[in-house]
Design brief:
The protein is built from 14 helices and 21 strands. The protein has 499 residues and is of the alpha+beta class. The strands form five sheets. The protein has a seven-stranded mixed β-sheet. The chain has a six-stranded mixed β-sheet with strand order 7-2-1-11-20-19. Strand 19 (325-326) and strand 20 form a beta hairpin. The longest helix has 27 residues, at 368-394. The radius of gyration is 23 Å and the shape is globular.
Length: 499
């Protein structure tokens, strides 16, 4: 059977995943394809993902969004990093701050100089030299490309927002770009008997929607990719044992902080995400070590404001589809896999996959080599992020519960063990070309959870001990002085509310 030119694209499922797909495809390929999106108002969406990472800015820019309007329409706030509390041991705290730290030298990153300073007994925190961290803890923010008077980079940021409002914002955009929305529930998936491709889906009212290419955004069910095409699921719960979340919004209290909080508890962790109109709260935990009632009690006793809704339980299984693209169907969002939102990667994985689809779009028909390459890249990306999340659990020294003891003793992926061993011995960490987290991200989590390298790069010895102390003092003053000149985060949000 010959290849069929891709003209009609059908997206099954709305929410954040479906409308992201519709928005990007209509923006980039809308003149060459027709796009229909099927969703039902009767089916709820998970919608707990309210924190993002900096690549979302490039995605929004590609769609031509006005940032202030976007923030206004989604109740958005600024995110400068994630504050981790109690992860190494109870009472500890560190931040995975976005952006760079200190001043890198050619062939030698700044952390080598800091490690040397620690061995010399020079007192400082690694985060004394992070512009993002210092701005975050002082509730400061402004768009800043570089530190004034230097070539040092400025502030890197992302957003917190209401995911349901983000979906509505994307829907309005997509429909303006000629995406057709069909209300209803898919009751059957119809396969071509000759090649096993999806030919159409049948709605609960009997209507049939045909297409050349199908995008599964149906959530955990995987209505097309799994229930129809049976691609299989790779379970990672032996590395990431948390399998349930409970979400609950609360009334906003106090000043809006420009960072996410991740607070470890006896069998998982709790998130706190400040929006303009409320605070998003939730607890992620393992049902093997804690009941729903126990988790609810921990959540309710550790929120700042009055609950606005009843706690909602969300079961999940960490892992990924073995084939995220199969035949003429590709999956995104929860239909493609799930990694707990510890590093706010859910929306990024969705948007990264969509960018990858645009690059690999099969406009002249489906080619297996293109499917294989897409799946290879997707697998590598998922596994890289998986390792980064496992890192937080495996480095803990907590022994106050069986959960944390088991996390310390679990056999981690070889790829992650290599990274930890390399950094522990030499201070070196490397980022692959297509990998999300840069060296500075790995450095912060490992240093933040107590891994101080035994050695450092010899270039750090190219300056004297006294020069090193002076350099660190100058950098600390430079960062602190820059933060002092920044306006309040609340001032920036006020300016976004003005139309």
């Amino acid at each position: 059977m010959g290849k069929i030119k891709i003209t009609n694209v059908v997206i099954v499922g709305g929410g954040t995943a479906g409308w992201n797909a519709a928005a990007l495809l209509s923006r980039t390929l809308g003149k060459t394809i027709n796009i229909k999106l099927i969703e039902s108002d009767a089916i709820g969406i998970v919608g707990v993902g309210e924190a993002t990472i900096p690549p979302i800015i490039n995605f929004n820019n590609a769609l031509g969004f006005d940032e202030r309007e976007f923030i206004r329409e989604t109740n958005g706030t600024i995110k400068l990093g994630i504050q981790f509390e109690n992860w190494n041991k109870i009472g500890d705290s560190y931040m995975h701050a976005f952006g760079d730290i200190g001043k890198d030298f050619p062939f030698c990153s700044f952390h080598n100089f800091w490690v040397k300073s620690q061995k010399l007994g020079i007192k400082s925190s690694f985060w004394d030299f992070s512009l993002n961290y210092q701005a975050a803890i002082k509730n400061k923010f402004a768009k800043l490309d570089s530190i004034k008077g230097t070539n040092l980079p400025g502030i890197s940021y992302a957003y917190h927002f209401d995911a349901s409002l983000y979906a509505k914002y994307l829907r309005k955009y997509s429909e303006h770009h000629n995406v057709t929305r069909i209300e209803g529930i898919v009751s059957a998936t119809n396969l071509n008997p000759e090649n096993g491709f999806i030919s159409s889906v049948t709605m609960d009212n009997g209507d049939t929607v045909a297409g050349d290419f199908f995008i599964d955004c149906s959530g955990f069910r995987g209505l097309l990719i799994e229930q129809a095409l049976h691609t299989g699921y790779e379970d990672w719960s032996h590395w990431l044992p948390c399998d349930r979340a409970i979400a609950m919004p609360t009334r906003l209290t106090g000043e809006i902080s420009p960072y996410t909080k991740s607070i470890a508890h006896q069998a998982g962790w709790q998130w706190r995400i400040p929006l303009q109109n409320r605070t998003g709260n939730g607890i992620v935990f393992s049902s093997k070590y804690m009941s729903d009632d126990q988790a609810k009690q921990i959540l309710l006793s550790n929120v700042d404001g009055e609950p606005l809704l009843e706690p909602r339980v969300i079961p999940f299984q960490t892992g990924r589809r073995k084939q995220q693209w199969s035949r003429n169907c590709i999956s995104f969002g929860l239909a493609s896999g799930f990694l707990e939102p510890l590093e706010s990667t859910s929306i990024h994985l969705l948007q990264s996959g969509l960018r990858r689809l645009v690059k690999h779009f099969p406009h002249n028909g489906i080619d297996q080599s293109e499917i294989d390459e897409y799946n290879r890249q997707s697998k590598d990306e998922f596994e890289h992020i998986r390792d980064f999340i496992i890192l937080h659990y495996s480095l803990t020294t907590r022994d106050d519960s069986q959960f944390w003891i088991d996390c310390q003793n679990m056999q981690i992926p070889d790829s992650l063990q290599h990274r930890i061993d390399l950094f522990s011995s030499s201070g070196k960490v490397f980022k692959g070309d297509e990998q999300l987290f840069a060296e500075i991200a790995w450095q912060q989590v490992m240093i933040g959870q107590g891994v101080i390298p035994e050695d450092y790069h010899p270039i750090a010895d190219s300056i004297s001990d006294s020069q090193l102390g002076g350099m660190l003092q100058d950098l600390k003053l430079l960062v602190g002085g820059s933060v002092d000149t920044l306006p309040r985060h609340s001032d920036f949000l006020d300016s976004c509310r003005k139309t």
